[in-house]
C-alpha cells in the first residue's frame, strides 16, 4: 500500500487504529486491550494538540503559580495535559499504574478500572518552549504488569529493554505521532479534517551516520573530556571531513524527531553541575532510546546502553547520547566503552 501524499485521495488510508489492529492480528492470543489503550493515548494527544494550537487564544499560556515534583514552575498547559492523559488512561480500563512527570508518586489505578498495562509519560515535554510557539510534545512508554491484582513499584522500576511499546506525539507545524510496538517505528500525521492519525512515515530508519549534532553548548564549561572532545571533533574534524551542523531546539521531542528523520546525534550529557544529566530516565530517556534502537540507531548513557539501566527511583535522571549508529559509536569509543 502506498502511503505517500500523492495517493492521499485514496480511500484505504492506514489510520493508527488500523495499524495497531494489523499488529495485533500477528498475536492470536491478543484480546484488543492494547488497541484500546493506544486509542486512549491518541485521544489525549488530539486533545493536547488542540489546546496547544489555541493556547494564546484560550489564555492557556503562562504559569499556574505552582511547582512540580522536579521543582520546576508548572505551566497551565502542563497541568491541563497531565489531567487529560491521566483521565484518558484511567478510563481506558487497561492500565494499573501510571507514572507522570507531573506527579510525585506513581498512581495506582482503582481495582475496578484496572488492566494489565503500566504507562510512564511526560504529558508535555519542552515546557519552556510553550509560550513562544516552538514544537513541544508528549512522550510515553508502556510496560505490562506481572500480576494485575497486585501492581507494585517493582513493576515500574524495570529496564527500558522490557517496555512493550513507546512513542511520542509532536505538536509542531503538523501534529505527528511516532510509535513502536517492538517491530520497527512508524510515524502518523494528524489529518485535522478527519481527526485521525494517518500513516505517513512507515518503517522509519535513522541514517547510519549523520551530519548534525544537537546539544546545549551553554553547558560546555562543565562538560567532561569525552563530551568536549566529541563536540570539538564535530566542529573541527580531524579526518578532514566537513564540520557537522549544530541544531538545538531545546525541546526533546523536536530534537529527537529531527535526529530520527535526518540522522545525527542528540545529547544531554552529565556535567559537573548535573552529574546525572537533566533528562528523566523513565519517561524521556527510555521511550526515546526504545524508538531509536527500533529505528536502527543507538542510545548510550556515557557508561552503558541506556535501555539496560535499572531505575531506582521513578523520577531518576540519566545522561544520554542518542542517534545514528556511527555517531553514537564515536562517543562510546571516547568514553572507553566498546
Ligand atoms: P524543558 O525544560 O523545556 O521542559 O526535559 C525537559 C526539557 O525541556 C527537554 O525537552 C529538553 O531537551 C531539555 O529539557 C532542555 O534543557 P536545557 O534548557 O537545559 O537545554
Automatic annotation (TrEMBL):
SUPFAM superfamilies: Carbohydrate phosphatase. Residues 14-202 form the Fructose-1-6-bisphosphatase class I N-terminal domain. Its EC number is 3.1.3.11. Keywords: Carbohydrate metabolism, Cytoplasm, Hydrolase, Magnesium, Metal-binding. One of its GO terms (molecular function) is metal ion binding. Its cofactor is Mg(2+). One of its GO terms (biological process) is fructose 1,6-bisphosphate metabolic process. It is an enzyme of class 3 (hydrolase). Transmembrane segments: none annotated. InterPro entries: FBPase_C_dom (IPR044015), FBPase_class-1 (IPR000146), FBPase_N (IPR033391), FBPtase (IPR028343), Fructose_bisphosphatase_AS (IPR020548). It is found in: Cytoplasm. Residues 206-334 form the Fructose-1-6-bisphosphatase class 1 C-terminal domain. It catalyses: beta-D-fructose 1,6-bisphosphate + H2O = beta-D-fructose 6-phosphate + phosphate. One of its GO terms (cellular component) is cytosol. The keyword Magnesium applies. It comes from the Eukaryota. HAMAP family: FBPase_class1. Belongs to the FBPase class 1 family. This is Fructose-1,6-bisphosphatase, cytosolic. The lineage of its organism: Eukaryota, Viridiplantae, Streptophyta, Embryophyta, Tracheophyta.
Amino acid at each position: 500500500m502506498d502511503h505517500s501524499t500523492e495517493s492521499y485521495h485514496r480511500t484505504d488510508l492506514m489510520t493508527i487504529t488500523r495499524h495497531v489492529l494489523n499488529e495485533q492480528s500477528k498475536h492470536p492470543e491478543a484480546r484488543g486491550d492494547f488497541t484500546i489503550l493506544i486509542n486512549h493515548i491518541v485521544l489525549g494527544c488530539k486533545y493536547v494538540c488542540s489546546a496547544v494550537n489555541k493556547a494564546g487564544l484560550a489564555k492557556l499560556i503562562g504559569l499556574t503559580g505552582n511547582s512540580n515534583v522536579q521543582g520546576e514552575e508548572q505551566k497551565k498547559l502542563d497541568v491541563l495535559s497531565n489531567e487529560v492523559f491521566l483521565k484518558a488512561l484511567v478510563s481506558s480500563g487497561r492500565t494499573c499504574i501510571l507514572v507522570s512527570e507531573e506527579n510525585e508518586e506513581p498512581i495506582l489505578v482503582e481495582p475496578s478500572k484496572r488492566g494489565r498495562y503500566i504507562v510512564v509519560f511526560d504529558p508535555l515535554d519542552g515546557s519552556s518552549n510553550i509560550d513562544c510557539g516552538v514544537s513541544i510534545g508528549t512522550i510515553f512508554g508502556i510496560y505490562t504488569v506481572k500480576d494485575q491484582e497486585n501492581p507494585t513499584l517493582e513493576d515500574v522500576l524495570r529496564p527500558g529493554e522490557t517496555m512493550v511499546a513507546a512513542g511520542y506525539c509532536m505538536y509542531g507545524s503538523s501534529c505527528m505521532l511516532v510509535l513502536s510496538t517492538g517491530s520497527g517505528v512508524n510515524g502518523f500525521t494528524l489529518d485535522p479534517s478527519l481527526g485521525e492519525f494517518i500513516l505517513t512515515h512507515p518503517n522509519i530508519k535513522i541514517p547510519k551516520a549523520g551530519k548534525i549534532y544537537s546539544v546545549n553548548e551553554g553547558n560546555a564549561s562543565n562538560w567532561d573530556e569525552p563530551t568536549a572532545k566529541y563536540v570539538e571533533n564535530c566542529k573541527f574534524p580531524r579526518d578532514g571531513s566537513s564540520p557537522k551542523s549544530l541544531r538545538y531546539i531545546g525541546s526533546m521531542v523536536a530534537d529527537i524527531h529531527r535526529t530520527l528523520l535526518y540522522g545525527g546525534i542528540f545529547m544531554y550529557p552529565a556535567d559537573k553541575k548535573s552529574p546525572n544529566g537533566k533528562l528523566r530516565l523513565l519517561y524521556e530517556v527510555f521511550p526515546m532510546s526504545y524508538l531509536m534502537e527500533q529505528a536502527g540507531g543507538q542510545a548510550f548513557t556515557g557508561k552503558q546502553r541506556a535501555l539496560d539501566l535499572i531505575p531506582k527511583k521513578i523520577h531518576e535522571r540519566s545522561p544520554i547520547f542518542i542517534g545514528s549508529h556511527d555517531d553514537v559509536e564515536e562517543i562510546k569509543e571516547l568514553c572507553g566503552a566498546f
